[in-house]
Design goal:
Helices cover 20% and strands 31% of the residues. It has a 7-stranded mixed beta sheet, sandwiched between helices. A 3-stranded mixed beta sheet has the order 4-6-5. It has 208 residues and is an alpha/beta fold.
Length: 208
Amino acid sequence: MSQELKLPHISENITRLGIDIGLSYDAPNSRHWLSIHPDIFVFGFEPVPENCKNVLETIKDDRFHLYQCAVSNKNEKKKFNITKHNASIEKDRGQSSFYKPTPIAPFEVEEEIEVDCISLNSFLSLIDWDKFKEISMLKIDTQGHDSIIIQDIKPYFDKLPRIKLEVTTNGEYEDTPNSSPQEIREFMEENGYQLVNDSGGDHYYERR
């Protein structure tokens, strides 16, 4: 992996951390967290270059750090499909994924690139857990890859009180390793979480 995995400088007045994986074009979750929590620092992860450029132009805040890479369970380079929406939504690359779209998907592959991937487990190992007791919020939206990531970070579940996962991609990608929403729910419940909100393709979990 060409990108060195390290933490940015974090101000002493920061008391909470957020991790936003899969920012899309304008990072709505990161922007929301930054707007309501003056003491939060947010780490954002996004592999699509166009999205990264726009996010950095949109978020002008020293409490935000962008990693231009994908998240998986290994530190490696991997092929990644940048998609173009068929409904003429010019800036929408939010369906980009490791996996190729199926014929029913309302988007198509525009370009295949090679991206750096980081293991979220490896990233979490860099956190100063003496200073930060937990990650206040973790959001994972990786178009069919969420279950791979969540299984990899099981050793850190006691540090992750709230997790938002994309649990279904509605059959729009080929050969994704994502379990069914029910299987993901069972895995989370077996590991001390409860489902507190089911919003279509997203599940919000909290530690019991």
